[in-house]
Design a protein that fits this description.
heterodimer; A: mainly alpha; B: mainly alpha; 3 helical TM bundles of succinate and fumarate reductases
C-alpha cells in the first residue's frame, strides 16, 4: 500500500530569523546540549558509587578548564531552558499569545536566564571564597 | 468513484492516539524539573562550597530527602529527554528507517542512562 506523505515541520532556513523563532530554536539547542550534562551527571554518580579513587577522577575533570567551561555553559543553558520552559507553560494555559506579549516575554526570559546564571555563580563563588 | 474502502482512505490521516500522552508527560516532567533542577543546582553549589569531598557527597546523598529528590530528578529528566529528542527526530528525520533507528536508540539510551544513574544513587545512598 502506498503511504501518503505526512506533513512535516517547516524548515528553519525558510524563514527570515525573528526574535521569537530564534529563541524557539535555541530552546531546542539548549535542550540537546543539556543532554551532555545528563551524561556527565550519570558518570559523576557512577564514579561516586565506584569509590573515592574514581570520584577523584570526576573531580579532576570538573575542576579542569574544560570542566569549568562546560559547567558555565550548562548552567546558562539550564536557566535558558528553564525560563523558556516556564514561558511555554504560560502559553499552555492560554496566556501571552499576542505578538507584543511574545516579544516582551522573550526579552524578559533572556534577561531572567542571564540574571539567574549570574546570581547562581555570584552567590556560589562568594560563599566559596569566604569559606 | 473510488473503489477504496472508507478505512483505506482515512488510514494514516487521523490521530495516532498517542499525541496527548506525549504532550501531557512533557508538561508534567517540565513541572517537576523546575523545582528539582533548582534544588540540584543549589545542592551542587552547597557541595562545592564544602570542598566537594567524597564524604560530603556521601553524607548528602545518604539523607532521605536528597536521595528521593535525586531519584525523582533522574526519572523526570530522562523521560523529558526521551520525549524532547523524540519530537526533534520526528520533525527533522524524514527517512523512515533512520527515524525508527534514532527513536529506538533514544528510548533505550534514556532507559540505560536512567537505570545507571538510579543504581549509582542508591549505591552511594546505602553504601558504607
Amino acid at each position: 500500500m502506498a503511504l501518503r506523505d505526512r506533513p512535516l515541520s517547516p524548515h528553519l532556513l525558510i524563514y527570515r530569523p525573528q526574535l521569537t523563532s530564534v529563541l524557539s530554536i535555541f530552546h531546542r539547542l539548549t535542550g540537546v546540549f543539556l543532554i551532555s550534562g545528563t551524561a556527565l551527571l550519570c558518570l559523576w554518580l557512577l564514579s561516586a558509587a565506584a569509590g573515592p579513587e574514581y570520584y577523584a577522577w570526576s573531580q579532576w575533570f570538573l575542576t579542569s578548564w574544560l570542566g569549568y567551561a562546560l559547567l558555565g555553559a550548562w548552567s546558562y543553558c539550564l536557566f535558558y531552558h528553564l525560563c523558556n520552559g516556564i514561558r511555554h507553560m504560560f502559553w499552555d494555559i492560554g496566556l501571552g499569545f499576542s505578538l507584543r506579549a511574545t516579544y516582551a516575554s522573550g526579552v524578559l526570559m533572556v534577561l531572567a536566564s542571564l540574571g539567574l546564571t549570574a546570581l547562581s555563580w555570584g552567590i556560589g563563588l562568594a560563599f566559596y571564597f569566604t569559606q | 468513484m473510488s473503489i477504496q474502502t472508507p478505512l483505506a482512505r482515512v488510514r494514516y490521516l487521523g490521530s495516532a492516539k498517542e499525541g496527548s500522552h506525549h504532550w501531557w508527560w512533557q508538561r508534567l516532567t517540565s513541572l517537576m524539573l523546575v523545582p528539582l533542577t533548582l534544588w540540584f543546582v543549589a545542592s551542587v553549589w552547597w557541595l562545592v562550597i564544602g570542598g566537594a569531598t567524597y564524604e560530603a557527597l556521601q553524607d548528602w546523598l545518604s539523607g532521605p530527602i536528597a536521595a528521593i529528590l535525586m531519584l525523582l530528578l533522574i526519572g523526570a529528566m530522562f523521560y523529558h529527554v526521551k520525549l524532547g529528542l523524540q519530537v526533534i527526530v520526528e520533525d527533522y528525520v524524514h527517512h523512515k528507517g533512520a527515524k525508527w533507528t534514532f527513536l529506538v536508540i533514544i528510548t533505550l539510551g534514556c532507559l540505560v542512562g536512567a537505570v545507571a544513574a538510579i543504581y549509582a544513587t542508591i549505591a552511594v545512598a546505602f553504601g558504607g
